[in-house]
Amino acid sequence: MLGHDYTRRHNEVVRCLHLLLLNRYKFKSSKRIRSHSVQEILDNEYAEIRVDTRIKTDVKIRNNRPDIFILDKKKNKITLIEVGITSQDSLQIVETEKLRKYDLLANELGLIYRCSVEIIPYVMTWDGIV
Fold first, then answer.
1. pLDDT, tens digit, for every residue of 99-112?
2. 114: alpha, beta or left, given left = phi > 0 and alpha = psi -120 to 50?
3. Terminal Cα distance for the chain, rounded
4. What 3-state DSSP class applies to 88?
5. Is residue 4 exposed (0-12), middle (13-18) or buried (19+ Cβ within 10 Å)?
6. Considering the chain, what percentage of its residues have pLDDT values greater than 90?
7. Helices (DSSP H) in the chain: which residue ranges?
8. Which domains does the chain have, with CATH numbers?
């Protein structure tokens, strides 16, 4: 798959997830995916949602820019979502890679925020198989 096709599909998945999260955490947002535009940082009384932004930590961490970062203020929980588009043959490999890639960041965030951290690799094939 060409690089720009991967990036376009990846960004569309991030945009869909972003809209779902905005509705879940009671942010004002468009109801239609076509008119939805992703904002880097959003914050309200329920959650802080960051998209493709560096997460600052006390220790220097190489992989510190997950696709989506959610700080659920009511549950005191952080969720890191990492989207991957790949071939059917590499599905399991990419999922494991995404989990491992952000493991250090997740551990560090758990210590800083004193909360639980979950990493969700959202990996699908280029033709839509999850």
1. 999 999 999 999 99
2. left
3. 17
4. helix
5. exposed
6. 82
7. 3-24, 91-101, 103-113
8. 3-125 (3.30.70.2640)
